[in-house]
Amino acid sequence: MTTSNMEERVQKIVARAGVASRRKAEQLIREGRVTVNGKAVTELGTKADPERDHIKVDNRLLRPEELVYFVLNKPRGVVSSVSDPRGRRVVTDFVQSGARIYPAGRLDYASEGLLILTNDGDLARKITRAGHLSKVYRVKVAGRPSAEKLDRLRKGLRLPDGETFGSCEIQLLKAGDNCWYQVVLKQGRNRQIRRMFEAVGHFVMRLRRTGIGPVELGNLAPGQWRRLTRGELSRLEAAASRREKRPRGK
Question: Do 139 and 197 reside in the same domain of the chain?
């Protein structure tokens, strides 16, 4: 094969075509079940041009899916998955697309707000793994945590089970018997915000994600969706790909 600027790793092409996950695609290559222009590929570093080369898996020609990107306002009581063994509604029920899309990250069943759905496995992984990508939430908390408790959450805390949550930003949005806060996280632990506030004695009554990096939910109603704009996609890819800056050692 001649060199092309459009060449990509074969396992990435196979995964993006919806045939298998990236890990499964690597296994298929190792087993010799993937061919490029009639020649079996067994090395994971092999590259090909999906527009020019004939790539087959188990002798079936790949037809790469068009990459699509959606923003959904996930309603409460919906599972962040493509299926549910208990028959509950899932996020892909709401978005009309012929592509095999899945959520890039999760919101728990009782939470709502911004969720990105795509068939771009590379970007989905970057979004979920990027420890520097800010995620913004509006949180309604039972009661009003003291300034001391909020400072503990801002600085980060260790739970009794040993799990550690890093620092975060917390800003009061609306005071009252039950307060609303804006919380900005750079971690993405399971039920993190709920567990943080519960650790200082306050139950989270409502949780809504409004931003992921440069992408904002805007005025979408629960259950509504839209496509990411080219500008949003470009900024999101740049933000998710950017490596977190770490202080140099002395």
Answer: yes
Model pTM score: 0.78
Cα distance between residue 64 and residue 52, in whole Å: 12
Phi-psi region of 110 (alpha: psi -120 to 50; beta: other; left: phi over 0): alpha
Establish if 3 belongs to a structural domain.
no
Does 102 share its domain with 43?
A: no
> d(Cα 140, Cα 204) in Å, to the nearest integer?
6
Q: How many Cβ atoms sit within 10 Å of the Cβ of residue 132?
A: 13
Radius of gyration of the chain (CA): 21
At 183, list the tokens.
């919380």
- pLDDT tens column, 92-145: 999 989 888 999 989 999 999 999 999 888 888 889 887 789 999 999 999 999
Residues belonging to the active site? 108
68 has which bridge partners? none
Reply yes or no on whether the pLDDT at 249 is more than 50: no
| 119 & 159 share domain | no
Q: What is the CATH number of the domain that holds 14?
A: 3.10.290.10
Q: What is the DSSP string of 131-169?
A: TT--EEEEEEEEB---HHHHHHHHH-EE-TTS-EE---E
* Integer Cα distance of 207 and 209 in angstroms: 7
- Are both 76 and 126 inside the same structural domain? yes
Residue 46 CA, chain-centre distance (Å), reads 27
What type of residue is 60? Answer: R
Q: What percent of the chain has pLDDT over 90?
A: 66
d(CA 35, CA 21): 17
Which parts of the chain fold into alpha helices (H)? 10-16, 22-30, 121-129, 147-155, 192-199, 230-241
